[in-house]
Design brief:
The protein is of the alpha/beta class. It folds into two domains: 106 residues, Rossmann fold, CATH 3.40.50.1860; 106 residues, Rossmann fold (3-Layer(aba) Sandwich), CATH 3.40.50.1860. Helices cover 47% and strands 17% of the residues.
């Protein structure tokens, strides 16, 4: 079998390079493609929640990717969990939500977590996914969340080091936990600048997602 083709579907341009970097680092043999609809964050903010029309757009994006030959689809937009679940039902290839692999990895680390995000609408979706996964495993979850909107604004304006510094500062403020979860793909670049803390893992969605996809195809 030739190297699998993985369609990466983005809602923000700043998510593209972090996941591409992780593929180069962890699975360079995979053939990756990028599809961007950067109107999605503004439309979600305007709507206030995921509407049927927004969900249908995710179905269309997934079907289009598969029609172009994708062997799997990875969405990198954390705020759209339920829309991605709808898309998953309509295609016959693996479809991953941005953070599902990372959240499973987090639950293997303990029960006390800190979740950081830079895009405010991601928090409800991430919290819901985290709580549902913990409940399905009989785990009583302790979760604190923190949003750092100034960080994504800095990244979008090319101030990468400021983005990383703001995330590191927020990580220091949330206190002890079993795992610190960085909720946006674009945040992965900041992980290296977060000082280590005893007993705490720092998890990023691109690393966990790429590892999961690699296992899926190794086992097939």
């Amino acid at each position: 079998m030739s190297a699998p083709r993985i369609a990466l579907i983005h809602a923000m341009p700043v998510a593209i390079e972090p996941v591409a970097h992780v593929f180069r680092e962890m699975w360079p043999q995979a053939r990756i493609t990028h599809l961007l609809d950067d109107s999605l964050p503004a439309d979600l903010t305007a709507a206030g929640s995921i509407t049927p029309a927004i969900a249908e757009r995710f179905v269309t994006l997934a079907r289009y990717s598969v029609s172009c030959g994708a062997d799997a689809v990875l969405f990198t937009c954390s705020a759209f969990g339920t829309a991605i679940e709808e898309a998953r039902k309509t295609v016959q290839v693996p479809v991953l939500k941005p953070n599902e692999a990372m959240l499973e990895e987090a639950l293997a680390a303990g029960t006390d977590f800190a979740l950081l995000a830079t895009f405010e609408p991601s928090i409800p979706s991430l919290r819901s996914e985290f709580e549902a996964l913990a409940s399905s495993r009989g785990i009583k979850l302790r979760l604190k969340t923190r949003t750092i909107p100034a960080a994504i604004a800095a990244l979008q304006q090319g101030r990468d080091s400021e983005h990383d510094r703001l995330i590191a500062a927020a990580a220091a403020e949330v206190g002890p936990c079993d795992a610190l979860v960085l909720g946006q793909f674009s945040m992965a670049r900041a992980a290296a600048g977060i000082p280590p803390a005893p007993g705490r893992k720092v998890l990023t969605s691109p690393h966990s997602a790429v590892a999961r996809l690699k296992r899926i195809f190794a086992e097939s």
